[in-house]
Prior knowledge:
Blueprint: H1 3-26, H2 34-47, H3 58-80, H4 97-110, H5 117-131, H6 134-143, H7 148-174, H8 182-194, H9 196-207
Helix pairs in contact: 1-3, 1-7, 2-3, 2-5, 4-5, 5-8, 7-8
Amino acid sequence: MNIFRFAGDMMHLLSVVVLLLKIHKMKSCAGISLKTQELYALVFICRYLDIFTGFISLYNTIMKIVFLASAFSILWYMRSHKVVRQTYDKDQDTFRHYFLILACMVLALLVHHKFTFREVMWTFSIYLEAVAILPQLVMLQRTRNIDNLTGNYVFFLGTYRGLYMLNWVYRYLTEVHYHHRWLTWISGFIQTALYADFFYYYVKSWRNNEKLQLPA
């Protein structure tokens, strides 16, 4: 554990807390893409198949449980809560996310480190996480006006991945026996790059004390 990974985990956790706060307190999921949340739930399911069989540390197990539980909680709110589900803007959330699932699965079957079920599912989760934010970003570009909690949620989520990339670089430079996986590095770079445009307008709105807006 190093400061970059811990900070990345906290940013990831903070993004979930901000989203759940928005949904639970405001009883609204306006501006939130259900399709992105479905993709993240699938990412966690496929990545944490070893949650009860591959113990690494108490911290690691708790984080896995938290992310799985929060993902299903968000889906339940958006799909089943009688008030929250009415605020979901289905007409703006039209990204065909099943194409992302199919493409990432095919890629995981073709490009992986070891051809085993768990390894392919882990690789699939890495590929899918890299592009899972796309439906959310597209939805924000369509709606343009973004409330503070939604903007903060996306910002913290992007910061998490950027910090994880610094974690990988730090481990590569300081740990003699660290075995990096180039698939993870490439996917992490792609995921971080997808946030670049959003980060620019987020920082610009913060500096000018303006409401966050993305170009159409």
